[in-house]
Amino acid sequence: MATFSQSTIEKGSDMIQDFLCSTCEDKKLDNTADFYCESCVKFYCRTCIGMHSQWFTKHAPYGRGAMKK
């Protein structure tokens, strides 16, 4: 499903887990995801979300701030 690209821990802060873009990962690229589509159950970077939004106009992907949903 999702792959963790890295974990960032700063002094006094919570751990932040970054996910890889599902489409880029299939192409062996390590781009951090900025969006999540609940309908597709996939993560997308800023580049790939444009094409996803063109193909799947009724999907409503979450931005990085809402990924905990």
TrEMBL record:
Domain B box-type residues, every copy: 16-59
Classification via InterPro entries: CEBP_ZZ_sf (IPR038446), Znf_B-box (IPR000315)
Keyword Zinc-finger: yes
GO molecular function, one term: zinc ion binding
Signal peptide: none
Keywords associated with the record: Metal-binding, Zinc, Zinc-finger
Protein name: B box-type domain-containing protein
Keyword hit for Metal-binding: yes
Source superkingdom: Eukaryota
